[in-house]
């Protein structure tokens, strides 16, 4: 029914898209509160590095995963301290976080380069494995993070749009003045969004080193953080659309790998460009109306003098 | 110089020293936790920089940083945020390579300006795209330059693995070596190359343009109040594109400098984050030319120390990014509410 | 219900409130009347807890009230409808209201809240669709949402700060009906305004403020327009100066719009096929409620907005595709309402600001000929009898009035033949406003054409040699001086009467 190529791409899209989705969900939460963290790349690296190192030392990937989540939360908290409490420039702070992530992840991971670890266990429900076209591929043979990816996206969506807290976060992202006038503390809400967002980013990073590849290498996120930032825009700050976008962007990467394995002549680099070019094209298509989709509070820093 | 004139100069120097000191202290603490000796690291770094060659290496590192900083600073006078220095750098290198490889052989006095012009053009065009998008109010330039950052190195990689693949090359994919005429001259047996002169000239040109010319006044007007500027007849859209293009061209020159002055051929990984570092330099310097010079030098010292640390202490080079980050954190945390 | 007793507040050298006494009763509309700068907004800020008084106290139901912040005020049932609404355009009405509810559950009960909005809306004449996004609503509807927010947050005392400023006349009627409904249910309303006619129409009790003090108070049915005017302005009166007749002859057109159209994007108004002429030596007034397209029309004439149809003529030449710079060169000047926002660059010095928008006049190679500029600008300041501020001072440090003067001096320096004045007196104190009007009249007397855009019909009556009425992007009325009444123009402004005289 489905060609091996298509299956391979689909399977790869899900695997690759998992960390992308978590990162995007985390950044969506943060941006909904009016903050942009350009240093997401650094946070992902820190999560990957700490997750791997702790797993190598303790031999238990779950502890590593928890450590990664905690690291992500702390990193974002540091970012929050700079940006919310000290009112520092968000773009510069984000880039500083990126550099910090580069360095700290390298430092933490250096002693463990080349270590062999037990990654996150994967399983596949028997009834799915029985299907002929499934058993041949890696489809549905997922670790916990991938299985929970869709539910987590739904949860983030529900929290943002159906709860009191989510309404407050969105209000802060649109108009801190109005949020303050309603008796809320914008800074507290932003820190909370940053905290949860950081945990998600930490998990995203951990998935890379504990599941997708069972290694640690410097800069291993290879720009995923920036793809996630693009994806947040691409999905109009909506967690549900992010799922589709993560599949799409993850699929591009998977397609590239499959084609390379098959000795295809299509350059992998062209495919690598896809996420960025697609996002740019989508932004173009929205034209000026894109502004209506973005949380108004992002305007000041992200959108400069526009 | 009188007493009172000295104090305003003394205070910022004191402030900068305190910041540097605090950052170093934090960094040393982290090194200690990692089981390394920070004093030894400092001594090693200092020793390697103290020689003539060591100092010349600093100049080599500074060269692209000055240019990428101007690439950010110039558009920032108009309120534009250019985080695309990386991409513009790569496209500058790419264009310059195209010039060096495609044009018929020319003597050096013709080839060098040509290649430099191509480098500038590459970066300028790459930045003009977001510029036009911004002027047409379609896409914000922060996002557009950020996205294009990642497309440019892929174009370079594609070219190196494809049409420009050097035959019989080693493990590293790269372009064929440039003809000698296209290489920037180096000075006194060091790696310091002609790009440094370009960088300093660019810095001078930036200062003159913004502070002394009519155009600079209009640019600052746009940066201060774009609506008022437009109402007063300033052709804002044209200036927006021109400023980004000029800035991109500077970054393009940095790329050309790295390719033609340091590596001698087009490679992947031409820029270990020069574009982003340039953004931070420009930001720390507040867009001021002397500040850019000073900050670029400072960052050169830090990255040089990183190399030393890798060799003598067995730390990955990337660790020096922590020190960079510390400096930035401290500066960012100290300025309450300063924007841009 | 609420008593203000001997409240005073000083801001620097200005005594904004001086021993004010005021009583708000339930079931009453209490109007706080006074000119701009009389101290009304200071007092309202004190009642709402935004600022604290230097002396005096606020009593609620006889007990002293601790109002340290707006939160305290809200907890005590005091609500305020600001001039600039505290609404979030991207969220729905329901979400905006929910944000301010006191008992919002963890999980939003959207249908329940929607139901309450509809119920209260129906009761007081504040119907809005709870699921509509605020940015899709008209200004009048947004105000309704603001009121709903307060009502659902259980405020019993409602303060309205200049609520009719942004409303069309029929919407004002609607608001007064809402007041009546609220009054009937025992709410107390404090209605802050400077518009006499409205006060007489709807207020039960009136307190007049002048220069920070209570100038007088009236109970139900006691007030008379004449007495009120005297109280607001003092004996020297706020009489408008006698309207001066235009200079005879000189009917050559400076600017013509023939069938001009300009598409408006988003919330902007589209202009359709406008025919308009501005002559030498005339002040052409433009009336209309806010949002009728005045700004768009002004921008169209200035060259800021491209023509999507028709043509623009300047002194007989087709200027349809001229750039802003070219128009300015040929003598078109712009006097805006908010100089700092529209005509000056905050980060620059006075000198640098004076050099902007002067085109090629002061060029010297790549730089600016500062000496020539300073000389010319100095002459302009002198001709206008304005004091010239020190040229190196940052322009943002100047007061509003001084800033406006710098902009005017710059605009007038080259003897413009066409002046577009967009709400030029908005936000200015009475003396500065009069001075601006005087200046524009003198320009007219000197042969310039002036397009005078204003929301103040009395001001328009005083200034206009001819009056045009703009409604939803079309010209719906034209009146020569002295031939019109406020009510007629008012009706045209809101589209409730057929096109007249165009």
Give a description of the structure:
The complex is a heterotrimer of chains A (306), B (340) and C (502). By secondary structure, chain A is mainly α. Chain A has a single domain, classed as Orthogonal Bundle (ABC transporter involved in vitamin B12 uptake, BtuC), CATH 1.10.3470. Chain A is 74% helix and 1% strand. Chain A has helices at 4-32, 40-58, 61-85, 90-109, 126-130, 132-135, 144-162, 164-174, 176-181, 186-212, 224-234, 239-261, 268-286, 290-293, 298-302; strands at residues 122-123, 142-143. In chain A, helix 1 (4-32) packs antiparallel against helix 12 (239-261). With 340 residues, chain B is mostly helical. Chain B has a domain at 64-286. Chain B contains 13 helices and no strands. Chain B has helices at 3-33, 38-50, 52-76, 85-102, 108-135, 141-161, 195-212, 214-224, 226-231, 236-263, 274-284, 289-313, 320-334. The longest helix of chain B is centred in the N-terminal third of the chain and has 31 residues, at 3-33. With 502 residues, chain C is of the alpha/beta class. Chain C folds into three domains: 2-233, P-loop containing nucleotide triphosphate hydrolases (Rossmann fold); 254-331 and 422-502, P-loop containing nucleotide triphosphate hydrolases (Rossmann fold, 3-Layer(aba) Sandwich), CATH 3.40.50; 344-415, no CATH class. Chain C is built from 17 helices and 22 strands. Chain C has helices spanning 40-47, 70-75, 93-99, 110-124, 139-152, 169-184, 196-202, 225-233, 294-302, 324-329, 339-342, 350-355, 370-384, 400-412, 430-445, 457-463, 486-493, and strands at residues 2-11, 14-24, 28-33, 55-60, 63-64, 78-81, 157-161, 188-193, 205-210, 213-218, 253-262, 271-279, 282-287, 309-314, 317-318, 332-335, 363-364, 367-368, 418-422, 449-453, 466-471, 474-480. In chain C, helix 13 crosses helix 14 (400-412). Chains A and B meet through helix 3, helix 4, helix 11, helix 13 and helix 15 of A and helix 6, helix 11 and helix 13 of B.
